Amino acid sequence: MHAHYNAYRKTLNHTGASRHRDASELARVTVALRHAETGHDRAQAIEETRQIWTRCGVNACHDETAMPDEIRRSMRDLASDMILACAKAAAGDVGSLRALIEVNQSVVSGLNPAMPRSFHGDAFHPRVRQVA
């Protein structure tokens, strides 16, 4: 997942306006996922996360910018990994839920470096890499 994530961050130079939309949506859904850890609206937060990553994967497949193919593939692969993690989290896997939160936080920090430092996290310790 880590290599896919790095490639996704490289695509940010190609994405323009969607960059800010993705950052705000991922930030919002990550807060919802944090609440889901305590049982509040878990299914809804996971579903919203899945929808965002599904859109990111579709956008990677159909992007008409000068995005290099390897970055497009890696972005699509990261989206697939995140969708799989959503399915595992929806089935009750706490590790997958935490991984969704951490990867979203890390992606948001790449999309919007102005986020408060406390929002950022080291998303890529071994447990997170093994989720997908």
Structure description:
The chain has 132 residues and is an all-alpha fold. It has one domain (2-129). It contains six helices and no strands. It has helices spanning 2-15, 17-36, 42-62, 69-90, 94-111, 126-129. α1 runs parallel beside α5 and α2 (17-36) runs antiparallel to α5 (94-111). The N and C termini lie close together (7 Å). Mean pLDDT is 68; it is low at 12-17 and 115-132.
What is the strand and helix layout of this fold?
Layout: H1 2-15, H2 17-36, H3 42-62, H4 69-90, H5 94-111, H6 126-129
Helix pairs in contact: 1-4, 1-5, 2-3, 2-5, 3-4, 4-5
Keywords:
132 residues, mainly alpha, 6 helices, 75% helix, 0% strand, disordered C terminus
Number of strands: 0
Intertermini distance: 7 Å
- Specify the helix fraction band: over 70%
What is the arithmetic mean of pLDDT?
68
Continuous helix count: 6
Indicate the low-confidence ranges by residue numbers: 12-17, 115-132
Question: Structural class of the helix and strand makeup?
Answer: mainly alpha
Main pleated sheet: none
Pfam families: FlaF (PF07309)
Keywords: Cell projection, Cilium, Flagellum
Protein name: Flagellar biosynthesis regulator FlaF
Organism: Thalassobaculum litoreum DSM 18839
Summarize the structure.
With 132 residues, this protein is mainly alpha-helical. It has helices at residues 2-15, 17-36, 42-62, 69-90, 94-111, 126-129. The protein is elongated, with a radius of gyration of 14 Å.
